[in-house]
Amino acid sequence: MTELLSPQALEDSLRDIGATRYHNLHPFHGLLHGGKLNKGQVQAWALNRYCYQAAIPRKDAALMSGLTDRELRREWLHRILDHDGFGDDPGGLERWLTLTDGLGLDRDYVMSMEGALPATRMAVESYVRFVGERPTLEAIASSLTELFAPTIHRERISGMLENYRFISDDVMTYFQRRLTQAPRDVEFALGYVKREATTPERQRAVLDALRFKCNVLWTQLDALHSAYVEPGRVPPGAFVPEGNA
Q1: Residue 218: Cβ-neighbour burial (10 angstroms; 0-12, 13-18, 19+)
Q2: Which residues have C-beta within 8 Å of that of residue 210, sequence separation ≥ 6?
Q3: What is the Cα–Cα distance from 175 to 52, expressed in whole angstroms?
Q4: CA 81 vs CA 4, 78, 84, 87, 223: distances in Å
Q5: What would the pLDDT profile of 127-144 be if each residue is shown by its tens digit?
Q6: Which residues contact 113 (CB under 8 A, 6 or more apart)?
Q7: What is the pLDDT of residues 67-99, one digit of tens each?
Q8: Are 101 and 167 within 8 A, CB to CB?
Q9: Which of 42, 93, 162, 207 is the most exposed place for a label (fewest CB within 10 A)?
């Protein structure tokens, strides 16, 4: 990029990244939402995805540690509370554990992350480090995968409820809640990015940050597909579904 994009052109470029790189395009999601996985494979997905869910408040805390703007800290704080919970709201992490409970996974085992794939944990930790080390603008831009999240959440809710007898409404509350939380979050983050990316260099960094985040999400599904869809590829120490041991 050598020329400055208008704010709308920058938003269009961000959305183009989602249209070509977001993980809803990964074959694993087609299998998951289409009812093509068995219960053990769905368990593996939920268990590994917990690693990412647990990292979200950590990465947001890392971002906040570098913020000198009090109002920006106040705006970002609710993201941590959305996931860790506050007051009567148990939070997104608890809602995710409701899903893994419903799938028959031991809660302590899920929370230990001992059975997670090595690639999952490495991808997740790379995201936490990125947000903690990169400038605020890039850290915030990396959250803009939320632009595309409501679509995948709606697909997941309808597809999994329709196609799996072991999935019920009460275990899908995480995704139902994110249908309202994600648009609120992205409205602020997108506005911030469009306002603060005032040079071609800053705009290029913003686009690269979103590409990086898409790669983090894609890598997690590559690992799941390799380990649990392609037979015999589960790494030592990782979760093995019943019947496959």
Answers
A1: middle
A2: 14, 17, 18, 141, 142, 144, 145
A3: 14
A4: 36, 5, 5, 9, 29
A5: 999 999 999 999 999 999
A6: 50, 51, 54, 121
A7: 999 999 999 999 999 999 999 999 999 999 999
A8: no
A9: 162
User: Torsion angle of alpha carbons 209, 197, 10, 154, nearest 10°?
Assistant: 50
| Amino acid in the structure at residue 134 | R
Instruction: Record the tokens describing residue 118, joined without a space.
Output: 């090595």
CA distance 60 to 67: 11
Q: Which two tokens stand for residue 69?
A: 């703007």
Q: Match 């554990």 to its residue by tokens.
A: 97
User: How many whole angstroms separate alpha carbon 243 and alpha carbon 193?
Assistant: 48
Give every CB contact of residue 196 below 8 A, 6+ residues apart in sequence: 137, 202
Supply 16's token pair: 């183009």
- Cα separation, 103 vs 107, whole angstroms: 10
Residue with tokens 């915030």: 140
**93-130 pLDDT tens trace:** 999 999 999 999 999 999 999 999 999 999 999 999 99
Helices marked H in the chain:
7-21, 27-33, 39-65, 70-84, 92-102, 107-112, 118-133, 136-141, 149-163, 173-196, 200-224
Which residue is listed with tokens 């009090």?
70
Question: Number of C-alpha atoms within 13 angstroms, CB side, residue 185?
Answer: 26
Going by CATH, does the domain composed of 7-228 fall within 3.40.50.80?
no
Each domain of the chain, given as residue ranges in start order, spans: 7-228
